[in-house]
Amino acid sequence: xxxxxxxxxxxxxxxxxxxxxxxxxxxxxxxxxxxxxxxxxxxxxxxxxxxxxxxxxxxxxxxxxxxxxxxxxxxxxxxxxxxxxxxxxxxxxxxxxxxxxxxxxxxxxxxxxxxxxxxxxxxxxxxxxxxxxxxxxxxxxxxxxxxxxxxxxxxxxxxxxxxxxxxxxxxxxxxxxxxxxxxxxxxxxxxxxxxxxxxxxxxxxxxxxxxxxxxxxxxxxxxxxxxxxxxxxxxxxxxxxxxxxxxxxxxxxxxxxxxxxxxxxxxxxxxxxxxxxxxxxxxxxxxxxxx
Length: 291
Fold this sequence. Notes:
Blueprint: H1 3-8, E1 13-14, H2 16-19, E2 23-24, H3 31-40, E3 55-68, E4 71-79, H4 85-88, H5 90-100, E5 103-105, H6 107-119, E6 122-126, E7 133-134, E8 139-145, H7 160-170, H8 174-185, E9 190-196, H9 198-204, E10 210-217, E11 226-230, E12 239-240, E13 242-243, H10 249-259, H11 261-270, H12 272-290
Helix pairs in contact: 3-7, 3-8
């Protein structure tokens, strides 16, 4: 997947809610994939505007309250396209987020995300372990010092849980180190990862369900901050994926008739006018075919 080609073709950017039927979500990149491409193209050779885009990514954040020894606590399940419950039910997810801010997952959807932790497609984090700072009643965040992230916590480094999530977002191992170096080269000293405020999650909690949000990677002007909190599916010029071919309405109807020929015949038997109209269409085809 050539991210540069996807980005520079304006046809591949649009509005999530408006254009859901037109985009193939399998071609939407993860945050880590975009970060890797940014670091590789750090001199902006491919596209001068590459670093100045915001991106909806293929990642998702699922938030749930679970019982622990300390009581009920908020957890983040951060995953990628393979386990993304929003992509699996995109139309309904967009409808709910526009109407109620959150896509509320049912028990079956929640279980699929839980299972995806075992396959490595999703990372589970206890929110209290991230040592979050409150941004507002809905959002919280932790910061990454791009120069000293590797040192101990007292010297400005990340704790183990912060580092694990940060690497899921921006790339693991050497890829993470490379992206931090890339950011320092662009004079970005600190970046933030935003998640939902644990207090907000407790307020929204309903037993047996969870809430899901889209993810967004910022441009360099906004310090490449990352949000696992996005509900604004109607934000324009953000989605980047590959356009799907629209099926012609007449062709779709034709395929539907062929799908169940016996049922089609039964309907025609009770509706002679429709049968006659279809017969006329076939005769028209024969006449034009012979010309």
